[in-house]
Amino acid sequence: MYFSRNNARDLQYVQDYEPENDDIKHVRILLYGPVGVGKSSFVNSVSNVLRGRMTTPALASSTTSDKSFTTRYETHKIKKGRGKSKTYYPFVFNDIMGLEKGDGVRPDDIILALKGHVKEGYTFNPASSLSEGDPGYNPDPSLEDKVHVLVCVLSANAAEITDSVLQKMAEIRKLASKLGIPQMAIGTNIDLACPETEKDLKNVYKSKHLKKKVKDFSAAVGIPVNCIFPVKNYSDEIDMNDDIDSLILSALRKMIDFGDDFIDK
Ligand SMILES: Nc1nc2c(ncn2[C@@H]2O[C@H](COP(=O)(O)OP(=O)(O)OP(=O)(O)O)[C@@H](O)[C@H]2O)c(=O)[nH]1
Ligand SMILES: [Mg+2]
């Protein structure tokens, strides 16, 4: 794969997208992964690309810490158009708490979220899972409450993923497969991962180091290499950047296509 920039085409594709299934207003994309890898930042990055300016629908942390900054189950919509013609894009993101050991979100809760049982605004409790009858439990989820694409978020700049996190991920993926939910991954922080991409993001598909990272991710989480998308999130930029946009748009297109395949069934 070579770095080729087709931002205008990709942006148009995303702007024109409408769900195949008329009963569904939006495709629901769930992001999960270790703490601090850039899950919330990815939602913001998508919003930036689509709105053509810096925005922050999902609060990201200002630093990296070993405790998750995001703790509530919230749906992030992205605005489309302005004024009277203002609507939202027909895809939404659920960004959740990190999977770290002890303090992280429980796999059971993510599985409930996949099935649409977690109510908007629910605060994850690392000590016990949500159960039927709890106020945060939605006993009767609609097709729109369910998750249509599951995205594993990993950092290309992190040391190995710990066994406990890998184990949680395996549990989640197994159930998602059972439910037939399409899965893919994004590798964030490629700007910090190796000198080549640090210098120029366009080197992303030339970097041997990143190629190996993607292979390692694939082996660790069981997602095929061609379903793992390297990205750089907007983090400390002041202005928009075409190379960042290009990578974000590629990943986003795949999410939309996967989600659409699922709701079409
Ligand atoms: N350089 C760089 N920084 C990033 C990237 N993605 C995220 N960051 C930074 O990493 C930090 C953590 O990002 P978040 O988006 O809050 O991570 P998260 O996965 O939502 O974390 P929790 O909600 O705490 O689990 C922030 O300071 C971001 O600015 C990236 O691709 N490149
Ligand atoms: Mg977060």
UniProtKB/TrEMBL annotation:
Protein name, UniProt field: Uncharacterized protein
Domain of life: Eukaryota
SUPFAM superfamilies: P-loop containing nucleoside triphosphate hydrolases (SSF52540)
Source organism of this protein record: Perca flavescens (American yellow perch)
InterPro entries: P-loop_NTPase (IPR027417)
One GO term of the biological process aspect: immune response
